[in-house]
Amino acid sequence: MANPNVNEQGYIYGKFQTGPKTWTIMSRTSPQFVYLLIGDEKAALIDTFYGYGDLRQLVETITDKPVMVINTHGHYDHTGGNSFWPEAYMSEYATKEAKRAFGEELQKIAESHAYPDYECKVLNDGDVIELGNHTLEIIKIGAHSPGSIAILDKTERILYTGDELEAGQVLLGKAAVATHLETMLKLKAREDEFDYINSAHNGTHLTKDYLYDFIELDQRFIAGTATKLESAAGFGWADGSAGFGGGGDRYNYGRAHFVVH
Ligand SMILES: [Zn+2]
Ligand SMILES: [Zn+2]
Fold first, then answer.
1. Residue 145 CA, ligand 2 centroid: distance in Å
2. Is residue 250 included in any domain, yes or no?
3. How far away, in angstroms, is 163 Cα from ligand 1 center?
4. How far is the CA of 1 from the centre of ligand 2 (A)?
5. Residue 38 maps to which CATH number?
6. How far apart are CA 122 and CA 129, in angstroms?
7. Contact predicate 60/228, CB 8 Å
8. Least confident stretch, 30-44, 73-87, 234-248
9. Which is nearest to 122 in space by CA: 92, 87, 146?
10. Domain that holds residue 62
11. Would you say residue 26 lies in a domain?
């Protein structure tokens, strides 16, 4: 049988090891990353892309441990491949939107998988997940989506931030900037526990400086002194894009960018 993860352009997904017990998987369809964290007893997969190819088959080329799927939030670019597994863990809010496909084609793809009606299980702030000599903690955040969680890998000292902190642009509603500041401060309070940040889009293995720059950018926006750029265009984002409510203005401080709608 043909490999479901190969098309006319070659491999759909790339995989590379980025820590003693951590693999990064990237997609050719968008500048996006998911992460596989391996413990002695089980593995955790952080996010699952859109559902193209057969992500489970790819994951099983890396580990034969049982896989616990965790979603950083409920947007479909992070949950579409959940349906390769019987259950997925996420925030309560995310359970309400995780199965909402971005269009009919993706809905059909999900229905062709083994578990289109997979069970959504809830993670709460402070939950600890033990993979076997590899420990994770859930930290509730959420401004890009009220359903976001960060995942702190206490063993490998990495913070996973989903779409709440990333190197291209965080997409935010205007009213959510104050919440974004709160969540960045909540993560900063834990900064002695991680060495770098893995986000879901537009670059990975980010320095902590991003966190400091986002705090400054949020504070300046709230004070009305943030620098607005002429164009909202950025890596992975077009000026005037219809995505995330459409339009939007780009603001920048240092390494931090957000597009506010
Ligand atoms: Zn998102
Ligand atoms: Zn996303």
1. 10
2. no
3. 5
4. 32
5. 3.60.15.10
6. 13
7. no
8. 234-248
9. 92
10. 6-228
11. yes
Query: Is the pTM here over 0.90, yes or no?
Result: yes
Q: How far apart are CA 20 and CA 6, in angstroms?
A: 27
DSSP code of residue 229: P
**Does 47 have pLDDT greater than 70?**
yes
Cα-to-centroid distance, 180 and ligand 2 (Å): 16
pLDDT band at 28 (very low <50, low <70, confident <90, very high): confident
Which residue is it, tokens 């994770």?
136
In a domain, 104, yes or no: yes
pLDDT attached to residue 236: 84
Residues 6+ apart with CB under 8 A from 242: none
Q: How many domains does the chain have?
A: 1
- Ligand 1 centroid, distance to 244 Cα (angstroms): 9
Task: Name the one residue in this structure whose structure tokens are 């401060």.
Answer: 185
- 127 domain-assigned: yes
pLDDT value at position 243?
85
